[in-house]
TrEMBL record:
Entries under InterPro entries matching the protein: DUF378 (IPR007211)
Residues annotated as transmembrane: 20-40, 52-70
Superkingdom in the source lineage: Bacteria
Full protein name: DUF378 domain-containing protein
Taxonomic source organism: Noviherbaspirillum autotrophicum
Keywords annotated in UniProt: Membrane, Transmembrane, Transmembrane helix
Keyword Hydrolase annotated: no
């Protein structure tokens, strides 16, 4: 009988898009935490205030939040 590896129930269901969304949510959460605590917008510091690249980062963080809401609802229904 082959050995079975112990994995958490949800970890085996994460694909590459899920991991990218999670990383982007971490980036967004850290950025908003810095804004709230210290008034420092790390994305704006790195890429320029409302530059095209910073807007892309903000849009990707927002899209990852929407994707996570969608995939979370899908996961809880199964």
């Amino acid at each position: 009988m082959p050995e079975r590896r112990a994995t958490s129930r949800g970890a085996s269901r994460l694909n590459a898009v899920d991991w990218i969304a999670m990383v982007l949510l971490f980036v967004g959460g850290i950025n908003w935490g810095l804004v709230g605590l210290f008034g420092i917008d790390l994305v704006a510091m790195l890429f320029g205030e409302m530059s095209a690249l910073s807007r892309v980062v903000y849009a990707l963080v927002g899209a990852s939040a929407l994707y996570t809401i969608y995939s979370g609802n899908k996961l809880f229904r199964s």
